[in-house]
């Protein structure tokens, strides 16, 4: 059989297949959809024949394109939907965090050690903090937490400013989470840098206010959203380090393969980190700057820490075996 | 590696159906073009949205509007490519205009997670200082033009619809000459591709290529090209017109 004969004999079938695939691609309901698997397999056989009989590039490219289109229609992924989201919250996310508990320790240390070191350094020598914050940073800390109690609430008096700050925290803080994650691709160096930098800078800010500002106005502001925000950042760091470690230490897999596996494992972490940081933005935008007695704020903040810790430690423990 | 992979930016992938498909990988240049288009689209979209927000600001107040503006900026920055690539197009508008699509390395459509990974890793690919130096270096040093984000997500960028080969009629075969020796499958493929593509080349180029295999054709120059064409014709059409007599005649030439 010559290429011409082959084409002539089958072209009608190919046209019908192409029409079917084009219909399904457009997403409209199609009564012949159940024919697709059979027609797709026929096309696969035709393509194999063209390949093995060497009918030439022109026929091969045409059938190749048709097979790819059918393949894409058949294997079009179904989006997770509601059920997926529920299982994510009720067990897959906390299980993913617990499974990577070593990374949690690592990222926590990289953040908290410089944080507390900077706070403590304020007691002995302010020059470290001064060099980290710089004149502009110190001036803005002064403005926000310098004088009378809960000064920050007055910065929010204009209509809509709570909402604007909420949006800003989404833009800024969730963006930082994503950068921390992406930093893992630089063999984890980017991730460690961002965690370390945030630890140093936040520690410096806290130490500065402790020493020369009004600590109560600072701590009552940050305590409310700190649990979601800081733990979210650390979880983003875990996702980045998972990727970075796959590059540094791929184990028995080829490096690229190990990288793909690692990003799959890091996905629930980065989703969770984004959600936690978004929740922190809600609290920081609409609660943290309200003029409310300090005791209540501390109480709410402490409750947040307990709840988030309990969630990450306890929720979904009975499902842990499914993660493997 | 098959002969097409040596000659072309095609990569063979075997599907579960037991058939091999060929994917045409997209190189850095066409992808840079798609990126520029996307950039343009995003700037235009932000401009239009900004105008609308400006109008709405009269009613909602400046603070609310700047908040919404920040949210829009955030989504455009991080999720514009993710949403489109995870969708039915499998491509951002810019990629679609350039005829590209993002797929998994195994040929199937990408998932939301993969779209997210490959686009968030842009942050590293774009380094140093938004030159995309790392991304291009990775593209050029990987077999499938993958930038770092593609490597991490296990994705490739391919031409969605393979453009049909430019149809320039190759010189019509004058005769069908049987192959003097048995060729391997890959060698036969190369011979047929020589015929299929010869219409794209000048006569001089054809001769230049054909002269590499004088051992098969027996003659150099234009005569050699014609012989190769005739052999390719024989391979493809032998069942219909390849009289035995011609074989004998050709053997006669060989022994001289």
3D architecture notes:
The complex is a heterodimer of chains A (324) and B (256). Chain A is an all-alpha fold. Chain A has 2 domains: 3-74, no CATH class; 82-323, no CATH class. Chain A has helices spanning 3-25, 36-53, 57-74, 81-99, 101-124, 127-145, 152-155, 161-182, 189-212, 215-248, 255-286, 294-314, 320-323. The longest helix of chain A has 34 residues, at 215-248. Chain B is mainly α. Chain B has 14 helices and 4 strands. Chain B has helices at 3-7, 28-60, 62-78, 80-86, 93-97, 112-120, 122-125, 133-141, 148-153, 185-197, 203-210, 214-217, 221-237, 244-255; strands at 10-14, 20-24, 100-104, 155-159. A two-stranded antiparallel ribbon of chain B has the order 1-2. At the A-B interface, helix 2, helix 3, helix 8 and helix 11 of A face strand 2, helix 3, helix 6, helix 7 and helix 9 of B.
Count of the separate structural domains of chain B: 2
Kindly, what is the distance between the CA atoms of the first and last residues of chain A, rounded to a whole number of angstroms? Answer: 54 Å
Measured by DSSP, the beta-strand proportion of chain A falls in under 5%
Overall shape of chain A: elongated
Radius of gyration of chain B over all CA atoms, rounded:
27 Å
Give the overall pLDDT of chain B as a whole number.
81
Strand content of chain B: 5-15%
Summarize the amount of helix of chain B as a percent range.
55-70%
Proportion in helices of chain A: over 70%
Shape of chain B: elongated
List low-pLDDT spans of chain B. Answer: 239-256
> Which stretches of chain A of 5+ consecutive residues score pLDDT under 50?
none
Rg from Cα of chain A: 28 Å
Number of helices of chain B: 14
Transmembrane segments (chain A): 101-122, 163-182, 189-210, 230-248, 269-289, 295-314
Pfam family, one (chain A): SpoIIM
InterPro entries (chain A): SpoIIM-like
Keywords (chain A): Membrane, Transmembrane, Transmembrane helix
